[in-house]
């Protein structure tokens, strides 16, 4: 695809769109992989005062390059505070001090529920054993709001997740309240094709924007349930030159371009392989 | 008072077949060399506990040391999945692996309860997830003051807790800093403990934000410089991200893994 900033990939559009969704000054609980890339991009572009919080206990990390893990040394060296893991979850996450939880998913359903545990119907004999929950269940429950970043295809966008690792809106309206989940739940899903937001009444994820070059038909084709489309569907602004430059500088420093190409190939061959990079670690 | 000894002697004295063993380290200060020593000593039927099983647990599992894994996230951070873990969980190679899985919040609280000598911990967690349906150690409890229904998880009290740290003095007092994870909790929660350190020094000078474990709260201390590699010890080494990436290819294939293990862990050159 091309735009004023030159040509860009669908993955770059996804990361840029995710970065734009972060409000300057917000306190953001960052999962590793694409959420971390987007959050670090936001700090370099539209949200210089974004507070990055990694579950390793680093609060207010200001890394000068992308960390590979949630516990790279520079996160601690540049943080405002470094706390133990029990303190992170009990004092900082649980009481609702964190504005945005930024998560990935292997599977996501129409109510924004997330699976990062197993693919297949039988938990004891999974088709694919995924890494598991990490911090995600409580991030999804207790952050004031949740943003999910995930590639858009039918493997990921399923009618029902095989395993509910982290709750979005459960089975529909009222479930979060019934379960005592204190945060608002998912407010935005950013994919490589567009943006989805929960319908205010039904809580069902609804297509509210398509990225340049993606059509509604293509998004529906990549979604495993009959996808609702907003009446005022928008088209995402393409990445600006400044956004693309900042993103490529970040990914270049980690050798990410090469890695993400490899991941695409691996995903094609082995199903949910590439998903392992996403979400909380 | 913690006894200063060699890694080989400490592991031989502490870890027996069938034990519940936690080697902790949240990305930082992972006691990898101690894990290799457990593999060399041929321990079997271990219940391995860890919030974030990564490469060293993949190696312990692939070497056939583990019967059961208690965990919250098993992956190679930023790289991908753990292939030895998956092979054991999906296909029972080299031996079947039972799983008991939690969230990070649940595991952290289980250690904290263990350190505090309490039978269980309370948290606002797991509500609406399928974890509670599959993991017997997730229950609910009603707050006697407010009536709120909360999650309850039992304390973790491993037979042996093992961590890496930056330094100890000759009396076995341990000092660690940077990302401290659950290092303190796992040592205090465990019946016996081993801390491997980058160096033993005459005196521990104070460090801002450091965790100090008094020698009388630790069973053994062993000096193992570089003992966290490919993890790291802040102030001594950097995380070897290239090795984490390289592990993906090494671990994907059973034969490649077995050869790597023979060359780098089981051979005399691998021993410390």
Explain this structure.
The complex is a heterodimer of chains A (281) and B (272). Chain A is an alpha/beta fold and 281 residues long. In chain A, 30% of the residues lie in helices and 21% in strands. Chain A contains 9 helices and 16 strands. Chain A has helices at residues 10-20, 34-44, 73-77, 85-93, 136-142, 175-179, 216-221, 241-254, 256-270; strands at 2-3, 6-7, 27-30, 51-54, 58-61, 81-82, 100-103, 107-108, 114-115, 118-119, 128-129, 145-149, 186-190, 194-198, 205-210, 228-235. In chain A, helix 1 crosses helix 2 (34-44) and helix 2 packs across helix 8 (241-254). The relative contact order of chain A is 0.18. Residues 256-281 of chain A have low confidence and may be disordered. Chain B is an alpha/beta fold. Chain B has a domain at 3-82 and 157-265: Glutaconate Coenzyme A-transferase (3-Layer(aba) Sandwich). Chain B has 9 helices and 13 strands. Chain B has helices spanning 7-14, 32-40, 55-62, 83-91, 104-116, 131-134, 183-189, 241-252, 254-266, and strands at 3-5, 20-23, 46-50, 66-71, 98-101, 120-123, 139-142, 149-154, 160-169, 174-176, 192-201, 211-213, 220-223. In chain B, strand 4, helix 4 and strand 5 form a beta-alpha-beta unit. In chain B, helix 2 packs parallel to helix 3 and helix 3 crosses helix 4 (83-91). Chains A and B meet through helix 3, helix 4, strand 11, helix 5 and helix 9 of A and helix 4, helix 5 and helix 8 of B.
């Amino acid at each position: 695809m091309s735009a004023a900033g030159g040509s860009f990939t669908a993955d770059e559009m996804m990361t840029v769109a995710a970065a734009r969704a972060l409000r300057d000054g917000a306190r953001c609980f960052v999962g590793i992989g694409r959420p971390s890339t987007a959050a670090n991009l936001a700090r370099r572009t539209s949200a210089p005062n974004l507070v990055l919080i990694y579950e390793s206990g680093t609060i207010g990390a200001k890394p000068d390059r992308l960390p590979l893990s949630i516990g790279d040394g520079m996160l601690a060296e540049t943080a405002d505070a470094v706390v133990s893991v029990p303190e992170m979850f009990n004092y900082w996450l649980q009481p609702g001090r964190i504005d945005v939880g930024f998560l990935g998913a292997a599977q996501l359903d129409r109510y924004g529920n997330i699976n990062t545990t197993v693919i297949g119907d039988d938990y004891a004999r999974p088709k694919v054993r995924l890494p598991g929950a990490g911090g995600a269940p409580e991030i999804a429950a207790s952050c004031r709001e949740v943003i999910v970043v995930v590639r858009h295809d039918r493997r990921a966008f399923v009618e029902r997740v095989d395993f509910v690792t982290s709750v979005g809106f459960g089975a529909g309206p009222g479930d979060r309240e019934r379960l005592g989940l204190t945060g608002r739940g998912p407010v935005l899903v950013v994919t490589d094709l567009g943006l989805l937001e929960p319908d205010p009444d039904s809580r069902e994820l609804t297509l509210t924007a398509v990225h340049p070059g993606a059509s509604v038909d293509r998004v529906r084709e990549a979604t495993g349930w009959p996808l609702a489309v907003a009446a005022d569907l928008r088209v995402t602004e393409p990445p600006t030159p400044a956004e693309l430059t900042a993103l490529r500088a970040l990914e270049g420093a980690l050798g990410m371009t090469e890695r993400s190409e490899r991941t695409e190939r691996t995903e094609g061959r082995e199903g949910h392989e590439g998903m392992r990079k996403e979400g909380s670690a | 008072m913690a006894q200063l000894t060699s890694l080989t002697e400490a592991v031989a004295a502490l870890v027996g077949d069938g034990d519940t063993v936690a080697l902790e380290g949240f990305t930082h200060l992972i006691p990898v060399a101690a894990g290799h020593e457990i593999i060399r000593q041929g321990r079997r039927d271990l219940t391995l506990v860890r919030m974030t099983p990564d490469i060293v647990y993949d190696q312990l599992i692939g070497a056939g040391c583990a019967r059961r894994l208690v965990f919250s996230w098993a992956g190679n951070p930023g790289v991908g999945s753990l292939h030895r873990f998956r092979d054991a969980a999906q296909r029972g190679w080299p031996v079947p692996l039972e799983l008991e899985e939690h969230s990070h919040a649940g595991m952290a609280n289980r250690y904290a309860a263990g350190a505090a000598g309490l039978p269980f911990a309370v948290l606002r967690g797991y509500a609406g997830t399928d974890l509670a349906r599959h993991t017997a150690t997730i229950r609910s409890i009603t707050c006697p003051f407010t009536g709120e229904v909360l999650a309850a998880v039992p304390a973790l009290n491993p037979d042996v807790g093992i961590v890496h740290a930056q330094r100890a003095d000759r009396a076995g007092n341990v000092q660690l800093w940077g990302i401290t994870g659950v290092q303190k909790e796992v040592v205090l929660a465990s019946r016996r403990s081993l801390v491997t350190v980058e160096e033993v020094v005459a005196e521990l000078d104070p460090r801002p934000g450091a965790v100090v474990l008094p020698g009388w709260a630790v069973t053994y201390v062993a000096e193992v410089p570089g003992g966290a590699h490919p993890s790291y010890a802040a102030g001594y080494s950097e995380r070897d991200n290239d090795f984490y990436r390289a592990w993906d290819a090494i671990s994907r294939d059973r034969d490649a893994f077995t050869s790597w293990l023979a060359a780098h862990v089981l051979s005399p050159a691998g021993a410390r």
